[in-house]
Amino acid sequence: MSDEEIQRLLAEGIELSGTPLEQPKDRPDEKRLAKIRSLLTARLGPVRPLPSNRVLIGIGLASFALVSLLATIYGGHQALHALNPVQMAVYFASFLLLAILFVVAVLEQIIPGSKRRVKPGVLMAGAGLFLIALAPVLFENFGLDGFVEEGLPCLKFGTFVATIGGALGFFLIRKGFLTSPLEASVLIGCFAGLSGVTALGFACPFLNAPHILVWHFGTMVIGTAAGALIGLVLEWRASRNEN
Amino acid sequence: MGESAIGEVEALMSRYQQADGEATAALIARLSPQVFQFFLAQVRDRFQAEDLLQDFWLRVHKARHTFRTGEPLLPWVFAIARRTKIDQYRRTRNTKTHEFQLEQLPDAASPEPAKEASPELADLLQTLPAAQRETIWLLKVSGLSLEEVARATGSSVGAVKQRAHRAYEKLRTVFGDRA
C-alpha cells in the first residue's frame, strides 16, 4: 500500500460515517497547567543537548574497542599469532561491522523519536546466525579434544569482559532516555557479549569451530540473557515509580 | 500545526534547554493540549489524563537534553508521551491486581464522570486495539506524518501503514454497522 493510498484512506475515514467526525476540543485544566509550569520552572537549568550521532557512534565504538583491547592486557593476544591474515581480517572486520550496527541500534534506543534504521530483534538474530555460519567457514578444525577444559576458562574470561562492557554500556545509556528499557537492555547485553567475543578473538589461541561456537559466542548468549533480566527489572521499576 | 508553527515550537524547545522560563511556559501552553488529547483518547478519564500530562512533563524535563535542534520535535514528544502511557498502564494493572474491593465507596468520593474528548470520535476509536487507536490518533488528530508516527512509536513506516490500514478496515466495518 502506497503513502497516497493510506492518506486517501485516512481522508475517507472522516467521511465514512456520513458526517464529519467532531475533533476534540477539551483542554487540560488551567490549574494543572500552572502546577506543571511551577514544577518545571522550579527545576529549570541549562542543559547541553546530546552531541551529533557521529560523535555518539564514535564514543560507542571507542568504548567497545577500549574494553576489548584493555582485556588483552589481562588475557593476552596469543590468537594474533595463531590466526592467518585472512582469518584475522574477516574475523575482526565482522566484529567491527557488528559493533557499528549495535552502536547505531543502541543510539536509536536512547534518543526518543529517533528514526529506526536497525531493528534490535533482527540485528541480534542476524548477528547470531552470521557468527554461527562464520565459525565453521573460517576455522576448519572441528576437533573436540579438551572441549570443556579449554572452553570453560574462555567462557569465564569472555563473561568477565562482557560484564565490564555491559557496566560501561549501562552507564552510557543513562545519558539518554529509554523509550523501551527492555529492548535497550537486551541490546546492551548482547553488545557487551560481543566485546567479550572480540577480546577472546585476541586472547584465545584455540582455533577450532566447536570451541568458538560454544565457548566464545556463548558469551553473547549470556550477555543477552543478563541484559534481558536487567531490562525486566528496569521495566518493573518504571511501572512502580511515581514521578 | 503548520510548518512555521512547528519551527516555532522547536525554537521554544531550544530556549527551554537554555533554561528560558518564558519559553518553558510557552512550550507547555503549546504542547499540552495536544498531548492531553492523546492521553484522553487512551484512558478516557480527565483526571487520569491530567496526571499523565504532569508525569509526561516531568519526564520531558529529565530528557530535554536528548532533543537536538534540527530534529523534528513531535516524534520526540510523542515517544515520551507513549512511554509515560505504557508505564501508567502497567502501574494501574499492578494496582488493580493487588486491590480488592472492601465496600462500596460513598458517592461523594467518586471521581467526576469522565468528560470525553468527542463522543463520536472517541467511541469509534475505542473499537480499535490500542496500537491501532494510537496510530490513527497520531496520524489523524495530532497530524503527524507516517514517518513521524514511525519515529514516535519506534517502528517502521511500513508497520505504521499496516496498522493504519488494519484500523481503517475495522473502522469501515464499524461505520457499516452503524449506517
What does this structure look like?
- The complex is a heterodimer of chains A (243) and B (179).
- With 243 residues, chain A is mainly α.
- Chain A has one domain (53-237).
- In chain A, 73% of the residues lie in helices and 0% in strands.
- Chain A contains 10 helices and no strands.
- In chain A, α3 packs across α5, α3 (53-75) packs antiparallel against α7 (147-173) and α7 (147-173) runs parallel beside α10 (218-238).
- The longest helix of chain A has 27 residues, at 147-173.
- Chain A is elongated.
- Chain A starts with a helix and ends in a 5-residue tail after the last helix.
- Chain B is an all-alpha fold.
- Chain B has 2 domains: 1-93, RNA polymerase sigma factor, region 2, helix turn helix motif (Rna Polymerase Sigma Factor, Chain: A, Orthogonal Bundle), CATH 1.10.1740.10; 116-179, Winged helix-like DNA-binding domain superfamily/Winged helix DNA-binding domain (Arc Repressor Mutant, subunit A, Orthogonal Bundle), CATH 1.10.10.
- In chain B, 74% of the residues lie in helices and 0% in strands.
- Chain B has helices spanning 3-17, 21-43, 46-63, 73-98, 119-126, 130-141, 146-153, 157-178.
- In chain B, α3 packs across α4, α6 packs across α8 and α7 packs across α8 (157-178).
- The longest helix of chain B is centred in the middle third of the chain and has 26 residues, at 73-98.
- The radius of gyration of chain B is 18 Å and the shape is globular.
- Chains A and B meet through α1 and α2 of A and α2, α3, α4, α5 and α6 of B.
